[in-house]
Design goal:
By secondary structure, this protein is α/β, with parallel strands linked by helices. A 5-stranded mixed β-sheet has the order 2-1-3-5-4. The chain folds into 2 domains: about 140 residues, Collagenase (Catalytic Domain) (3-Layer(aba) Sandwich), CATH 3.40.390; about 70 residues, no CATH class. Helix content is about 30%, strand content about 15%.
Length: about 280
């Protein structure tokens, strides 16, 4: 029996939307952060050369989840408390090896189709944002910008109450949480990727194979010509340089099931950025 096109489309809609590849809408890092990255890397290189080991204090980040749905239905982004609990557990599992943990301080729920579909985002954030500049605010919406799975802001030095202060945080496709419909990016690790940006990490493929570019300013992530799609084990997009592509790294574009790690140098950079940009404002 042949199905009418409209019937077939309806059935496909009930199965949830899939993405062919990961897309992150985080903008390029600002010049101020790039300059600080170069400075921190030079300091880290000097300590390594001197054989100095620096211990990093554990970090606990207060986090707020904001569910901004287009209606009261799950399909329109009204994800459940259980899904949110699973999401914070994924974040804690992924960051725990690097002495970073998240305390879910609270959750807000708002039904607003305009905000949920990526309009008036600054107005949304100004109305919903909680805490100081050390507080992580994650907004789960129906439609993040540019058909992406989400984006996050890099750390900076905004004045409290300024536009940049309110803009701080991450906007995520609500269906990327564990149990969401956005396979193969529905195990909760889109949040891990984006929060990596919030801590000041760049994509592992930044700068491509150009060794003079600085890349992601991380020594233990091999150079990578372009972002990964899927989970191509053994991929080597810069064959003339040492190391295979870091396809299991949270800051690549691999599928959620492929994600496994931050490197030690990425962990150190997150710690350094936290101390420099955010820790002083924590109350």
């Amino acid at each position: 029996m042949l199905l009418k096109a409209s019937t077939l489309m309806g059935l496909l809609a009930t199965l949830g939307t899939t993405y062919a590849s990961r897309k992150c809408a985080t903008p390029d890092p600002p010049a101020e952060l790039l300059a600080k990255s170069r400075e921190l890397k030079a300091q880290a290189d000097a300590l390594k050369e001197a054989g100095v080991m620096v211990s990093k204090a554990p970090i606990t980040v207060n986090a707020w989840f904001h569910v901004v749905s287009a209606s009261g239905t799950l399909a329109d982004g009204n994800i459940t408390d259980e899904m949110l609990q699973d999401q914070i557990e994924v974040l804690n599992d992924n960051f725990a090896p690097h002495s970073i943990q998240f305390n879910l301080t609270g959750t807000t729920r708002t039904v607003n189709s305009t905000w949920s579909d990526n309009e008036d985002i600054l107005v949304m954030k100004t109305n919903l944002r909680k805490g100081d500049y050390a507080t992580l605010n994650l907004y789960f919406t129906r439609t993040p910008p540019g058909n992406s799975q989400g984006y996050c802001t890099f750390p900076g030095a905004p004045e409290e109450g300024s536009q940049d202060f309110y803009n701080d945080g991450c906007v995520l496709d609500a269906q990327t949480v564990p149990g969401g419909s956005r396979a193969p990016f529905n195990l909760g690790k889109t949040a891990t990727h984006e929060v990596g940006h919030w801590f000041g990490l760049y994509h592992t493929f930044t700068g491509g194979c150009n060794t003079l570019s600085g890349g992601d300013y991380i020594d233990d992530t091999p150079y990578q010509a372009s972002q990964t799609q899927g989970c191509p084990v053994g991929r080597d997009s810069c064959p003339d340089l040492e190391g295979l592509d870091p396809i299991h790294n949270y800051m690549d574009y691999s599928d959620d099931a492929c994600y496994e790690e931050f490197t030690p140098d990425q962990a150190a950079k997150m710690q350094d950025n936290w101390q420099y940009w955010r820790a002083a404002s924590q109350s």
